[in-house]
Every structure is written in C-alpha cells, then in structure tokens.
Amino acid sequence: MRDIDVRRAVLAEMQRIHGSDPDTLVVEEVGLCQGLARIDIAVINGSVHGYELKSERDTLDRLPAQLGAYSQALEFVTVVAAKKHLAELKTIIPPWWGIWVASQKGQVMTLTNKRAARPNPQLSALALAQFLWRDEVLQFLVERRMDSGLKSKSRQQLWDKLAANATLEELSDLVRKTLKARGASWRSAPKQELDGDLHPLSSMS
Predict the structure, then answer these.
(1) How far apart are CA 49 and CA 47, in angstroms?
(2) Distance CA 187, CA 154 (A)
(3) How many angstroms separate the Cα of 175 from the Cα of each of 20, 75, 89, 103, 105?
(4) Distance between CA atoms of residues 166 and 141, nearest Å
(5) pTM for this structure?
(6) What local confidence, expressed as pLDDT, does residue 185 receive?
(7) What integer pLDDT is reported at residue 84 of this predicted model?
C-alpha cells in the first residue's frame, strides 16, 4: 500500500460525498502556520477538515511535530492510516481527531471509519488569520474601520491585528468564505505574498 493509493481512495471518497455540492472545495497539500506543516487533503465547506494520510510504507515519526500546527489551524482533523499504525496512532493524537483505517485487498482499497472527528477545542486565532493573503486581511479590517495606520504594515502585523480583533467564529467563517471565493486564483499568490514568506496554500492539480 503506497501513499498514492490511500490518497486516491480518500479523494474518491470526497468526490462521492461532496461531488455534487458546489459549496465544497477539496484541496491537496495545504500549508499551515506559515509552512510549519502541510496537511495532505483539506475539505472546505462548513468547516475546514484536514485529512492526514499514513500508508503502510509511512512511519508516524513526523506526526508529533505536525500535530501542533494541525491542532492550531484545522477545525476538524482525521488521520487515514494503514491498520499497522492504529495502536501507536492512538497514543499520539488527541481524542478529538478522527481515525479512518485504510486496507487493501488486491486492487481494492477500503476506508473504515474507526472514530469520528470532533470539533477542535484549541483553534488558534493567529493560525486562522494566516490562511489569508495580505489584501484579504486588509479588506476585512477596512470594512470594520480597524485599518487606521495599517495599510503600510506587514502581513504579520495585519494577521496580529485581525487575530486580536475578531472572534474565532468570525475568523473561521471569513477563512472558509475567502478560500472558496478564490477559485483558481490561489494557484498563484499575489506578488506581494511571494516577495515575503511563501503563502500557505497550494491548489490540488
């Protein structure tokens, strides 16, 4: 069982569940917390749900380091893992993360829901703000008349201002609406984003 086998199975399942919903966006390889970590698949609709894939060929060595970023930026997280990882996985991940077990017989891949994901109790306002491009943050602040003296400031200063002046509910709603509204435009970030740190999102091909 290879990573690509698990990935194809999960993408097919997302297509089955969400394929007819125009309000759902499925994106691969989404960077979080300014590139601190990258989630394999993100499903964006009424929440941002990340799916981390661990095939039989993978180890769980990187998961403890990834855990912090996932738990700051994602509203739901599910690990999709080969059965051999199940016991160790339960000692690493928090109880609110979901678990799917991937098993393969011949050419057939089966995904079994072992534990449903629950809402993240430890979302970070700053991690949510960092999903957004500079102009997107500034627009939100302008609309709320909170932009005084900020138009020449850095992305980090704008993220800090947004995180300090919006509730988690407002931020989550803003992030979901903004990401879905971008469409194909997030394939290439605006020049000012590329001049600084790489933007945290890359679209699925």
Answers:
(1) 6
(2) 22
(3) 22, 11, 29, 34, 39
(4) 10
(5) 0.86
(6) 57
(7) 94
